[in-house]
Amino acid sequence: MASSGMQLLGFFLALVGLAATVAATFMVEWKKQAQGKTHRIHEGLWMSCSGNERTTCEFHESLLKLPSEVQATRAVMLLSIFLSAVALLVSTVGMKCTRFMDSKVESKSTTAMIGGIMFIVA
């Protein structure tokens, strides 16, 4: 089993990765289009924004009207967020610096490894 410092470093890096995934999922700048010199359109997974000096954003009206790429990307990003959140909980239980399962050292290391594998999959 890795040292507590390495486990904490990995945990905090995974936490930063989860925060970045959440931020990327809800950003509007997935696709940019420029119409002329001043008017621009930004499209995201959840809404589209357009404007020149003042930007207005609207949520996508229907899930069925979206292209299949956007629907698939939504699903993959949400699955990644869910798996990362579950992996955070699982790896917290398996880390050396926590008091969960102190008497079961082998189970604790297995739990930490499962949490790490879940992070890799996410």
Describe the structure.
By secondary structure, the protein is α+β, with helices and mostly antiparallel strands. It has a domain at 4-30 and 67-121. The protein is built from three helices and four strands, in the order αββββαα. The chain has a four-stranded antiparallel sheet with strand order 1-2-3-4, with no helix packed on it. α1 runs antiparallel to α2 (68-94) and α2 packs antiparallel against α3 (105-121). Keywords: Cell junction, Cell membrane, Membrane, Signal, Tight junction, Transmembrane, Transmembrane helix. Pfam families: PMP22_Claudin (PF00822). Residues 1-24 form the signal peptide. Belongs to the claudin family.
Structural class: alpha+beta
Q: On the 0-100 scale, what is the average pLDDT?
A: 83
Q: State Rg.
A: 20 Å
- Name the helicity range: 40-55%
Q: What is the oligomer described by this structure?
A: single chain
Shape: elongated
The poorly predicted ranges are none
Order of helices and strands: HEEEEHH
- Hey, roughly how much beta strand do the residues contain? 15-25%
Strand order of the largest sheet: 1-2-3-4
What features would you highlight for this structure?
alpha+beta, 4 strands, about 120 residues, 4-stranded antiparallel beta sheet, 3 helices
